[in-house]
């Protein structure tokens, strides 16, 4: 299948804003080339400068790329993206080109390096385990065209929170699993079984491959489904890193599908909508446990008493 790659050049501080705008348009994937961020990792000696093209390291501005299926209404979509970018009132340049999906899958690899988040070390399959990180729980990930390399604040917030809520024996549902990263992390923390659910068949395929890569096929089942509709099993923990509106939609059903004492972890909530999502969770019967904020994103944890 052919895709349209839409590339937007902006100042470093605006990459997440542009990425969020692309997610609003339901892109299948976003990649960010940000020279400032690369230099932060290089200066912290986590990554090596020689691994990145000179052109990217010396670039004055960051580039955010997103991918959309090349369908008949692609020109309308491009027009809408252009209008939304103008409304942000920030300087930008917009480029686009047709690509095949293989090129897209590979575009992630250039900038995805091993990264430590909480107790975990997320490692692309093609990289070696860095020395000094041997005591971390290693998650091998090849994100392909699915969301979830661990570098996004919404994923990192969940990875940091998980050890508090997942103990050996727990049964977990990871709704909106993307690359499967949070389901794999839950299994590594000792969950008895994890149901990893995604509505996107591409994410389901990628998550299944990552589960096999981490030798967790017996512990993680990847299911193509819309949220938890028709899902009959009661679970102890539900994780959902999706977006505010979808978490609100999921809240009443999540309450029903948790056992007493069960925990719901919601992420991907923009800060402006945190209270609205929390209100919906409380209205669904949950009690508040904790909130964490980073980079304009909120993570909410609630319990079914
Ligand atoms: C932001 S990504 C999160 C990926 C990964 N869990 C992480 O934390 O990095 C959200 C995922 O939710 C999935 N999704 C969106 N709406 C959904 C729905 N109604 N049911 C199931 N999955 C959904 C998307 O396909 C996408 O893979």
UniProtKB/TrEMBL annotation:
Keywords per UniProt: Cytoplasm, Methyltransferase, Ribonucleoprotein, Ribosomal protein, S-adenosyl-L-methionine, Transferase
Matching SUPFAM superfamilies: S-adenosyl-L-methionine-dependent methyltransferases (SSF53335)
Entry-linked Pfam families: PrmA (PF06325)
Catalytic activity: L-lysyl-[protein] + 3 S-adenosyl-L-methionine = N(6),N(6),N(6)-trimethyl-L-lysyl-[protein] + 3 S-adenosyl-L-homocysteine + 3 H(+)
GO molecular function: protein-lysine N-methyltransferase activity
One GO cellular component term: cytoplasm
InterPro entries named in the record: Ribosomal_L11_MeTrfase_PrmA (IPR050078), Ribosomal_PrmA_MeTrfase (IPR004498), SAM-dependent_MTases_sf (IPR029063)
Main location: cytoplasm
Range of residues in the leader sequence: none
EC number per UniProt: 2.1.1.-
Recorded family membership: Belongs to the methyltransferase superfamily. PrmA family.
HAMAP family, per database record: Methyltr_PrmA
Protein name: Ribosomal protein L11 methyltransferase
Source organism of this protein record: Carboxydothermus pertinax
């Amino acid at each position: 299948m052919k895709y349209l790659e839409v590339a937007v050049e902006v100042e470093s501080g605006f990459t997440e804003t542009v990425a969020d705008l692309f997610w609003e348009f339901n892109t299948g994937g976003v990649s960010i080339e940000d020279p400032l961020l690369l230099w932060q990792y290089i200066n912290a000696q986590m990554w090596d400068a020689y691994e990145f093209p000179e052109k990217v390291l010396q670039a004055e501005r960051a580039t955010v790329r997103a991918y959309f299926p090349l369908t008949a209404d692609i020109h309308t979509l491009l027009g809408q993206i252009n209008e939304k970018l103008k409304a942000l009132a920030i300087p930008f340049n917009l480029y686009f080109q047709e690509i095949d999906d293989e090129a897209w899958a590979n575009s992630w690899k250039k900038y995805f390096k091993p990264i430590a988040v909480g107790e975990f070390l997320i490692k692309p399959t093609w990289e070696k385990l860095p020395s000094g990180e041997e005591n971390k729980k290693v998650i091998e990930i090849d994100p392909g065209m699915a969301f979830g390399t661990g570098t996004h604040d919404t994923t990192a917030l969940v990875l940091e929170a998980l050890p508090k809520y997942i103990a050996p024996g727990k049964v977990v549902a990871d709704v909106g699993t993307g690359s499967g990263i949070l389901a794999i992390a839950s299994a590594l923390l000792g969950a008895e079984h994890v149901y990893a659910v995604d509505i996107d068949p591409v994410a389901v395929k990628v998550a299944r491959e990552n589960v096999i890569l981490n030798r967790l096929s017996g512990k993680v089942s990847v299911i193509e489904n819309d949220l938890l509709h028709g899902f009959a099993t009661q679970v102890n923990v539900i994780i959902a890193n999706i977006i505010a509106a979808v978490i609100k939609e999921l809240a009443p059903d999540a309450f029903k599908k948790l056992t007493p004492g069960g925990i719901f972890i919601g992420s991907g909530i923009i800060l402006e909508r945190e209270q609205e999502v929390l209100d919906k969770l409380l209205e669904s019967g949950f009690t508040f446990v904790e909130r964490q904020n980073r980079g304009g994103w909120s993570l909410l944890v609630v319990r079914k008493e």
